[in-house]
User: Fold this.
Amino acid sequence: MLIGLLPWALILGVQGGQKSMSWLEMLMMTGMNFAGGSEFAAVNLWVHPLPVLLIATVTFMINSRHILMGAALAPYLKHTPLKKVIPALFFMCDESWAMGLAEAQKRKAAGLGFNLPHYMGVCATLYIAWIVFAAFGAAVGPLFGDVAAWGFGMAFPAVFLVLMRGMWKSFAAARPWFVSLIAAALTYLSVDGAWYVPAGTLSGLFAAYYWGAEP
Assistant:
């Protein structure tokens, strides 16, 4: 997981450094908004003067998927004290959510509860690695050219493919994924902005509800 994550964090930092972001600004942004997709969107919109409202709106739209991710974890966290749940959800990202949910499902099948130490260990590892390498990338960013040409961009999709493979059950169960993918792709190609995020999310939800209601 880290092999795919670290180059992507470096790319984020380098792109931020080339937009005149300092390593401290990058460290604070990634530390307070632990969500890679919205961070890349913020960096792409990073100009002077800063379009604060636009960045905040796009960040909210992209991070809206965390609402669904938190809802998926809710049944496993219902017996956990709120003072532990809030930090657990703050450090939740796509990778830690997928790994934590897979672990929770295995433990539930064995009659066990949610393994919070395991989940927080995953979160801490990913969090520290992400913010440190992103800050390092911002510090050395001005020294590099177009890092996108290096091909490291495939690292992030590769990580998600690995996560999806670990959660794969059957083609029938994955139909909402494909509906979400197609809707998001079509919206991305036809509508400017980050509208492909809610489009993919809502279409996937409707597809899951429709097929989930079948006998």
Remarks:
- DSSP finds eleven helices and no strands in the chain.
